[in-house]
Amino acid sequence: MRLTQLQVSNFRNIESIQCQFDPQVNLITGNNAAGKTSLLESIYYLSHLRSFRSHQLSDLIRRDTQYLQIFAQTLSKENLMIPMGIRRSRNKTTIRFNHRSVNRVSDIAAKFPVLSIHPDSYKLITGSPVQRRQYMDWGVFHVEQDFFQSWRLFRQSLAQRNAALKSREGKVYCQLWDKIIVEHANYIDQFRQTYIDALQHYLLSLAKLFFHRDELSIEYKRGWSTDITLEELLIKEFEKDKLKGYTCYGPHRAEIIIKVNGQSAQNGISRGQQKTLVALMRLAQAQHFTDTRQQLCILLYDDLAAELDGHHREMILSVLSKMHVQLFLTTIEADQIDLSSWSSKKMFHVEHGCMKDLI
Ligand SMILES: Nc1ncnc2c1ncn2[C@@H]1O[C@H](COP(=O)(O)OP(=O)(O)OP(=O)(O)O)[C@@H](O)[C@H]1O
Ligand SMILES: [Mg+2]
Which of 64, 108, 191, 281 is most buried as measured by Cβ atoms within 10 A of its Cβ? Predict the structure, then answer.
């Protein structure tokens, strides 16, 4: 899937822009507060229906306007033009894909795979496990068709069980959902384990280039101990769950532990190294996606120059130039990004939320 054309209205400081993109690489330049991140965010938003930097919808709709609108023309791997779009006001969301209305964001996310790397991405390492689960599940969702259904059924049943625990219902009632929880927890666990095993190879070979003297490891933890089944654990820990008012173990507590030289990457490496590592985690995901799905994904890289020193920047650009992705980069100064390795490229300049083509 490639993004060929984008129209954005009333998204942050962007009143209205329309652009045609290059299939390989697009560099967006502009001063601080011009709207560079907002443009990338609008592409991410179309794929995820959420932002990578804000949870508030009101932050996204341009001040003093009623709704935001994003429309994209995409090209599928079969070379079909597929339009998609989203219109969101404060109380209504309309999503269209290929001339049809769709109800769920997962319908559009499955068709329009977008990954992002941005200045806050290092929080994937330092932040809560929720972010690492989201990271892992992006990949599982895109490569394993049955994952989403299992995940949905698991979440629904877990919510029911937790509500019953919270309202102090009897044991038999609370345990009504255990069977379906266990069934789908086991699927989710298998999908995630398989994904991390496969992803590991990509990540470790990238890490060799950047952390050549260091040893990197990534370990998947499923959310409950490996020496007991979840079925047994839910029975064994029922009183604890009841006391807490929620289910303490399961795939909703899964984690991935990243270590450098045996020490947690959360506090054992510098902030710059964390930023490099997160970039590599995303690149590994993109490479794995392309290899397994035999199609491109879109990679948004916000503020690449501000994130890395000259040497690391060159190395990342060299890796990126060999990858099969459609790339969107932002930078303040164009000369900080050397695009000479790409045979096809486009540059844009953003000013006060307006955009013009440079080449
Ligand atoms: N809902 C909104 N309505 C109008 N303007 C907004 C809204 N949300 C954010 N802005 C403004 O949009 C502008 C562009 O922000 P953005 O983060 O996209 O800039 P940028 O080009 O990435 O800058 P930097 O180089 O500093 O990262 C900012 O001035 C911000 O205050
Ligand atoms: Mg920015």
Answer: 281
Strands 81-89 and 93-97, by their bridges, are: antiparallel
Tokens 């190879």 appear where? 201
Query: Among positive and negative, which fits the CA dihedral 285, 290, 295, 301?
Result: positive
- Over residues 162-197, the pLDDT tens digits come to 999 999 999 999 999 999 999 999 999 999 999 999
Q: What pLDDT is stored for residue 308 in this prediction?
A: 84
Both tokens of residue 220?
């998947």
Domains along the chain? 1-121+296-359 (3.40.50.300), 128-265 (1.20.1050.90)
Q: Between helices 129-143 and 178-210, what is the axis angle to 10°?
A: 90
Which numbered atom of ligand 1 lies nearest the CA of 62? 3
Q: What is the pLDDT of residue 358?
A: 78
Please give the sequence-ordered ranges of beta strands (E in DSSP) within 90-132, or none if there are none.
93-97, 100-102, 114-117
> In this structure, what DSSP letter does residue 90 have?
S
Q: For 314-334, what is each residue's pLDDT tens digit?
A: 999 999 999 999 999 999 999
Q: What is the pLDDT of residues 83-103, one digit of tens each?
A: 999 999 999 999 999 999 998
Which residues pair with residue 7 across a beta bridge? Answer: 18, 71
CA distance 206 to 126: 21
Query: Which of 28, 37, 300 to mutate for ligand 1's pocket (most ligand atoms within 8 Å of CB)?
Result: 37
Among protein residues, the one with the nearest Cα to ligand 1's atom 2 is 12
The Cβ-side half-sphere exposure at 57, using a 13 Å CA radius, reads 14
